[in-house]
Amino acid sequence: MKILFRALAQMPLVVLHALGIAVGWCTFLLSSGYRQRFLGNARRAGYAFASVRAAVAEGGKLAMETPRLWFGAPARAEWIGGELIAAARASGRGILLLTPHLGCFEVIPQAYARDFGRITVLYRPARKRWLRDLVDHARERENLAAAPTTLAGVKLLLKALKSGETVGLLPDQVPPQGMGVWAPFFGEVAYTMTLPMRLARQANAQVLLIRGERLGWGRGYRMHVRAWDGEFASEPEEAAAQVNRRMEALIRECPTQYMWGYARYKQPRAELAL
User: Fold this and answer.
1) Would you give the distance in Å from CA 120 to the centre of its chain?
2) Which residues of the chain have pLDDT under 70?
3) 74-117: per-residue pLDDT in tens?
4) Contacts of 45 (CB under 8 A, 6+ apart)
5) Per DSSP, what are the bridge partners of residue 97?
6) How far, CA to CA in Å, does 118 sit from each of 22, 89, 96, 110?
7) Backbone phi, then psi, for 92, in 5-degree steps?
8) How does pLDDT run across 209-220, given as a tens digit for each residue?
9) DSSP 8-state assignment for residue 217
10) Rounded Cα–Cα distance for residues 249 and 100 (Å)
11) Which stretches does DSSP call E strand in 170-249?
């Protein structure tokens, strides 16, 4: 599998994205479970299929561009709102970057590590060993570290923030049982992680919102940075709702690149709470 990934990594983005369009539509048409989740999640957010049908192809592009991002040459990336990051870094406090499963979220930490400095991202280790071995080494880059969703991983995130470094999270990812609370997401309760609030408070970190837009015709990516206005609420449920509302706002900026097929409303797995 690694040989296949490395072979795909040598292809131009425009070719991978063209293949991704076919992969996305094949998955949508052949997998009834995926199709139902996609349509149901979009409907919850108020979108008819016609409004977000481009997200079918974008999901395939996400899958096919991954080998290039993991093993290939760095992709072209530009910044809108990069001055917010520069100002936050100048303060000396840690930075917590939050992004949903929108656009190319894999490119965000790579672009940040290249253009701004060290960043640590939280990731869930793959269950299959061959994939776990592949993923664990694929994300290694200069100035880029990965922390697993374990107690040790969370300690790494907290240490990085307290050292004035940057941490990246996908807060619309369903956390294990005991690591979240139920909070509204597009009008329906979803199990939502409380980790952003906990990290920001314990490390006195600055919070920024970000999304990685995938540009057409393999032209690369554009990072959009947004400020987080206000403070986290004191109650975990309201703080989680705050995060969800901000993730919703980012998604509505570019709904055709959101992963509508993601099982956002599933029951959390029973794992050791962090």
Assistant:
1) 13
2) 1, 125-140, 271-274
3) 889 999 999 999 999 999 999 999 999 999 999 999 999 999 99
4) 186, 187, 248, 251, 252, 255
5) 168, 208
6) 36, 11, 12, 10
7) 90, -10
8) 999 999 999 999
9) G
10) 10
11) 180-185, 188-193, 206-214, 221-227
Amino acid at 160: A
Domains of the chain: 76-255 (3.40.1130.10)
Using an 8 Å Cβ cutoff, are 205 and 95 in contact?
yes
pTM of the model: 0.93
Task: Copy the structure tokens of residue 43.
Answer: 């409907």
Q: Which amino acid is at 261?
A: G
Question: What pLDDT was estimated at residue 273?
Answer: 46
Say how far apart CA 211 and CA 103 lie, in whole Å. Answer: 7
- Cβ–Cβ under 8 Å, residues 174 and 100: no
Q: Are 146 and 139 in contact (CB under 8 A)?
A: yes
Q: Which amino acid is at 28?
A: F
Place of tokens 């690591």: 179
- Cα 5 to Cα 116: distance, rounded to the nearest angstrom: 28
Which residues, in sequence order, are CB contacts of 207 under 8 Å at separation 6+?
Answer: 95, 96, 98, 196, 200, 228
